[in-house]
């Protein structure tokens, strides 16, 4: 004689979170499994499943450190580029302010501006040097005698 279950029942085996990336299924033997699966078979099966989801802790720590280092490096590069950009903007404003101060000055007016000069050294990457250029307006003075 065979028995057919009309209303199947479900046994849920919970996953227990033990920490970051550490979780295992509960190894407590459900009493509903009596006469279906032995306690030792259940333990063996759940332990096999738990081993399959184990994470290599050393590899996880290494990957986390690498990821933090990469993210930190990217953030640092972005921050340094923003600092350099703002510094250049303040430099341009300061030079323009000084230029306006001296451009209308008598007897000899001058203009200030930022320039960049490329220095090419043998077997090296070209070096860009930023400098302030002061352009002196030469006014010819003619004397009437």
From TrEMBL:
Transmembrane segments: 58-81
Coiled-coil region list: none
InterPro entries according to UniProt: Golgin_A_7/ERF4
Record-annotated Golgin subfamily A member 7/ERF4 domain positions: 23-99
Localisation: Membrane
Keyword presence, Flavoprotein: no
GO-annotated cellular components: membrane
Keywords: Membrane, Transmembrane, Transmembrane helix
The keyword Transmembrane helix belongs to this UniProt entry's keyword annotation: yes
Name assigned to this protein: Golgin subfamily A member 7/ERF4 domain-containing protein
Originating species: Adineta steineri
């Amino acid at each position: 004689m065979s028995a057919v279950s009309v209303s199947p029942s479900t046994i849920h085996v919970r996953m227990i979170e033990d920490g970051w990336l550490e979780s295992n299924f509960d190894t407590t033997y459900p009493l509903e499994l009596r006469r279906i699966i032995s306690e030792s078979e259940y333990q063996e099966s759940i332990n096999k499943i738990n081993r399959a989801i184990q994470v290599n802790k050393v590899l996880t720590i290494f990957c986390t450190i690498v990821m933090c280092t990469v993210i930190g490096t990217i953030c640092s590069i972005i921050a340094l580029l923003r600092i350099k950009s703002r510094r250049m903007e303040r430099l341009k404003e300061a030079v323009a302010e000084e230029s306006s101060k001296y451009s209308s000055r008598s007897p000899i007016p001058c203009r200030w501006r930022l320039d960049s000069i490329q220095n090419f050294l043998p077997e090296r990457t070209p070096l860009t040097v930023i400098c302030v250029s002061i352009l002196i307006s030469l006014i010819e003075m003619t004397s009437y005698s």
